[in-house]
Amino acid sequence: KFYCYICKTDCCSQQNFQSHMAGIQHQ
């Protein structure tokens, strides 16, 4: 499980997590 401590959000897959990190929602 991948967790973004900046956005306090967790992602099930690495692909989803990398997509979040590259996305606009993640600042």
From TrEMBL:
InterPro entries per UniProt: Znf_C2H2_sf
Gene3D superfamilies registered for this protein in UniProt: Classic Zinc Finger
Protein name: CDKN1A interacting zinc finger protein 1
